[in-house]
Amino acid sequence: MDQKFNMMPTCNLIDTRSRLTLGWTLCLCVAASIWCSPVALGQNDAQGPVPSGMELLDVEPFDIVRFTEKAGGGAVRTLLFNFPNRKLPVNPKGKLVMSLVGLEGNKYEAAWKDIETIELWEKRLQAEVQKMIAAKRFDDAYPLLAILLRDYPQIEGLDQLRADYMYRNAADAMKQGQYKQTLAMLESLRQHDPTFNTQIVLRVIGAVTDKLIQELVDKGQLEYAQKLHARLENDYRDTSLSSIEKWSEIFLKMATEKRAAALAARERGDMRAARALSRESYAIWPRIEGGKALITKIDSEYPLVNVGVLQTATVFDPTRIDNWSARRAGRLLYRTLFEISGAGPEGGEYDFLFGDLEISDDRKELYFDIDLNDLPPTLATANSFNVSELLMNRARPDHPDYSAPWAALLDRIEIPTLTKITAYLNRPHVVPHALLQRKIDGGVFEGKPGSPTGAYRFDVQEEGVTRFVYTGKDLSASQPREIVEIELADSSDAVSGLLRGELDVVDQLFPADANRLRQDPRVNVVNYPLPSVHMLVPCSDHHFLADRTFRRALLYAIDRDTILSGELLANKSVQGCQVLSGPFPAGIELNDPLAYAYDESIQPRPYEPRLGNLLITMAKQQAAALAKRNKEKPPELKPIRIGYPATDIANVACEAIKTQLSLLSELEVETVKLPPGQTWPEPGQCDLVYVMASVWEPVADARRIVGPDGLAKSDSQLVGMGLRMLEMSKNWKDVRDGLRELHRISHHELPVLPLWQLVDSYAFRKDIRGIGRSNVTLYQSLDNWRLSSSTK
């Protein structure tokens, strides 16, 4: 409140009237008792108009002193007074010392009896906020109100002002149909002052939440509608909120209808529909009578697992190094001669499909022991003769299964008995069986070529849903009779489906979604033990991509750290996810044996776009000079087309890469989304392809990545020499040295453009037992999967 005092004539230091009253008696004096002159008084015209409204945000805080008419009237702006608790003194005597705005170097005095009122800064802010609220200028009022709440919380009437602001703002937002903002304001109001217009506030909250839940249901976002309803039940359990009761009845009705449909589907033998409908019923209203029991009954009658995938498989090959979906689904249909089961202290650990393998101490002899009693029916005809034929085919140059490293390694094969094979090697090898990872189909042993040898067979694929059905006859209770892969638009859909119970398992998660999902008690999130290596691989005859200098330019122009941390990891730190300097994994932990191929002394190239531009200029000049010497036309720098598989991670990464490469001078970049299930472009379709490679055993996979017949199809003599030296290694020291030398060569030659490695993860609901926590691929432990129908 402004306080009034006795009046006495004085000069006006703001209004122009001061020029008419300069002859009046002056009551202001300098602190040194020097009376101010007309010239000095005229300087205060520089204070100008008093700021108001939003202008108050741009000036230093000030108080206003207004003088009595007897003292000449007028007012001055001063620096803030240091009153105790910013309260005006009661019945003051003597003089008030002040510093004027614009004349901060001097001190001035005025007799208290000459002062009409003092308007404090916070009171001015308060008055402006009140005006703005009345004018519905809520966005303008907010920053001024925030200053009051922060700096002057003790001011009288502030609590009422804040409540009035939130109440009127909510009312205005509701009129405009902004229901989320209305709810936020009213709930903040209730938190601040639960007694403010309680009945009206609760009535409006009920109406607003009713509309919000209806909107979510109409959009098909039932999960979020239920979450909002559950929160309201918890937060307003001691009140009567209209939307709670209304939607409890609606959700119960919806769940009851789904339950009835589930029972009808079960009655007519449509167990797939019965399973889906029973889970939908329970997800809509977990309190529905008999909901959990119905799920348990249907699962016991027809165990089925829904798996959410980010990419549908169109080819099925568990040995594909560059195709996640082919490797995942291929494990359902086919087995491999040797399958990696995990990481060991030295290289991977492998399972022999037909029995056991022992290696001699000098690592030059392999002893295969075939167990005829532990083979699936599709492989029941296996014996030492046809298995040895598989080993020989890997060494025959004219055979489709030919492997140059195995051919160079194998000396001869002997068959002592019907169940034993001995393979003699020309030299020791640290993991010779890693060279024997090949798909086994029914055509291998007198069956139909391409027919499955796994526990499941392909049934049907339509509209993003692929069904696999169990082929055996010894299905145990609660073991999945059917695996259904459901393609999802992105990882967030996978999370939602898992939480709603529509999905039982998700095979791959966006790293940021994986971190969020770990907090939910209904779900287990598990990291795959081996990371994936992401790279750009040249795949066309683009003239400039054949130039190492140009490839270096591209790598310098990609801010890999920012894309990885900001786009893929959502600014979260995830152990094992890092930028790479070569085509091999760097391991997950410190001194990780998985990193035996990675040379940590080689740092990834930094982000230097200027250097990238310079290198492109150099590449063009070199190409032009060579063309001139050959009397040819200089090559044209054509656009770079980057192909990527239809996955969330690849899409985000490649769009970011495109944006950054497009900043290079004279370079156009396009992205090409490959068809579902396809990870390698058709000839002429792309120039670079984004590859998520499973480089799990670098000593065996190096040639598959950078070799002349590998992904990169490198013709570099240095790369070829590095591969030959590696394949001549006789012990782990030689292997590590050879791989790290190949890492250095690859860093220099850039047969591929290394990006980063990601620690991928899978997730499953806790009612699925036996999945395990060390799967290299999702279906590796499928024989142990069981449904327990625990819906918690």
User: In the residues, how many domains can be counted?
Assistant: 6
Radius of gyration: 38 Å
Strand content: 15-25%
CATH class of the largest domain: Alpha Beta
Secondary-structure arrangement, i.e. CATH architecture of the largest domain: Roll
Shape: globular
How many beta-strand runs? 29
Structural class: alpha+beta
In whole angstroms, the N-to-C terminal distance is 60 Å
Mean pLDDT: 88
Q: Give the fraction of residues assigned to helices.
A: 25-40%
- Give me the side-by-side strand order of the main sheet: 16-17-18-7-19-27-20
Number of helices: 22
Oligomer kind: single chain
Largest sheet: 7 strands, mixed
What is the CATH topology descriptor of the largest domain?
A: Dipeptide-binding Protein, domain 3
Name the CATH homologous superfamily of the largest domain.
Dipeptide-binding Protein, Domain 3
Low-confidence stretches: 1-46
